[in-house]
Amino acid sequence: MNRYQQPHWQEEMKLKVDFNNMMKGFAGPVEGFSKEDIDALAVKISEAHQNMKEKRAAGEMDWRKLPFEQADVIKDILETAQELRTWCENFVVLGIGGSALGPLAVQTALNHLHYNELATEKRGGPRLYVLDNVDPERVAALFDVIDPKKTVFNVISKSGSTSETMAQFMIVYQLLRDKLGNTYAKNMIATTDAEKGNLIKIAQEEGYKTFIIPQGVGGRFSELCPVGLLPAAVCGIDITELLAGAAYMDQLCEEADVYRNPAYIRSTLQYLAMERGKNVSVMMPYTDALKYFADWYAQLWAESLGKRKSLTGEEVFVGQTPVKALGTTDQHSQVQLYVEGPFDKVVTFLGVSRYRQEVAIPKVFNHIPGISFLGGHSLGDLITAEQMATEYALMKAHRLNMTIILPEINAFTIGQLIQLLEIETAFTGELLNINAFDQPGVEEGKNATYALLGRPGYEAKKQELEGRPEKKKEFII
Ligand SMILES: O=P(O)(O)OC[C@H]1O[C@](O)(CO)[C@@H](O)[C@@H]1O
C-alpha cells in the first residue's frame, strides 16, 4: 500500500493553504475577494474543470499520471541509481529551464543544504551539479572541480535540440572521448523524448543509457518523470515518497468544488487578482530549502500563462510576472516595495511548521535590551515570527497575500507542493482561456539563435529576421 493511502500520514503531512487577506472575512483589513466574487465565476470554473478533464482524456496533461503510472520506469531509475552510487562521485545535469529547475529545487529541498560540500562518506552518494547555463566561465570552472572519469553526465532535453544543452553535451562528449576513449558511454545518460530531436538518435547510436520523457509531459511539468526522479534517486532522495505526496495532492485536486480543491481555489483567487490588475506574483519561501522552488515556479507560471493569444485566437496579452524572493533575506531587499509600492502584487509565502533542525539563540548580552529579547528563542522561532510579521505588514497595507504551509519539508510534502502548483497553473490557464502548455514566445528566440549561429536553414531564418538591426559590439570607452 502506498503511503498516500494511509489516512494518518495524509492528515499529519497535508499541506495547508492560509488565505491571509485574499478572502474577505478570513482575516485582517481586507482588500481580498468575497464568496460572491468567487461564486460569480461558477460557470467559468465548472467549464475549466470540464476542459481539464477533456485534456486529460486526450493525453494532453499526462504529467498528472506520473505519480500513478510509471512502475517500470521507477524500477529502472532505482536500479540505475543504485549502480551509479557505487562508483560515481559527481552527477552533472546538462539541461536548462524545465530540464534543470526541478532537479535543482528538489535537491535543495531534500538534501543537506551544504550537500556538495560534505565529504563523500557523509553524503553517501555523488555530488549534484546542475549546469543550466552556457556561461563559459561556469562551464570551465566545473571541469576544475570534477574528475570526468568519476562523473556521470545526464543530458536532459525534451526537444532534444536546445542549443545550450546541445552545446554542453558536445563539449562533454569530446572531453569524455579524449579521457576515456571508447568506454565513455557509461558516463553519459540521456533523458529525452522517445522520437523527437537529435538527442535520442545520438543516444541510441552511441549506446547511452536512456530515459524517456513521456508524451503529454512538457518540460516545466516534468519534474516527476525521469527528468527529476533520476537525479533525485542518484542523490539518495526517496522518490517513492515524492510520488506518493504528488499522488495524494492529485487526488485532492480531483474535486470539482472550488472550495474543496486547493489548486482551484488558489487559482481562482489569482485569476480574480489578475482581473484587478495584480500583474505580479511573488513566491517567497521562508526557508532556504525552498529557495529554488521559487525559480522552478517562476518558469512554470511565466511560460505557462504569459500569452498573447487566447484559445480562440483573440489577442489577450495575459499573464502575471513571477518574482522570486526568500524570507527573511528579501525582507531587507524587496519587502519595502511590496508594502508601500504599487498595488500590483499577490504574494505567496511558503511557510514551514517544523524546521528539520533547530538552532538555539543563547541567552547572552542580557544587559542590552535591543538584542537580549532574542536569547532563549530558536532561529525557527525567529524566522516564523518574521514571516508572520511580514504577512501582517502586508495585510495592514491592504496587500494581497496567502501562505502555503508545509508541516515539514520531506519528500511527501515536496511531492504535494509540486503537484499543487502544477495543477494550479494548468487550471489558471483554463480560466484565462489560453494554452498553458506551449511557449511560442520562447521558440521565436530559440529559432533566432539557430539563425544567428548559421545552422542549416539559416538562410530561411535570416529572412525572417530581416529588418532587425544587426547587433554590433559597441564599446563606450
Ligand atoms: O527540455 P528542452 O527541450 O531542452 O527545453 C528546455 C526549456 O526550453 C524551453 O523550451 C523554452 O525556454 C522550456 O519550455 C524548456 O523547459
TrEMBL record:
One Pfam family per UniProt: PGI
GO biological process: gluconeogenesis; glucose 6-phosphate metabolic process; glycolytic process
Keyword presence, Glycosyltransferase: no
Enzyme class (EC, first level): isomerase
Positions of the catalytic residues: E303, H332, K446
Enzyme Commission number(s): 5.3.1.9
Keywords: Cytoplasm, Gluconeogenesis, Glycolysis, Isomerase
Family indicated by similarity: Belongs to the GPI family.
Designated name of the protein: Glucose-6-phosphate isomerase
Lineage per the UniProt record: Bacteria, Bacillati, Bacillota, Clostridia, Eubacteriales
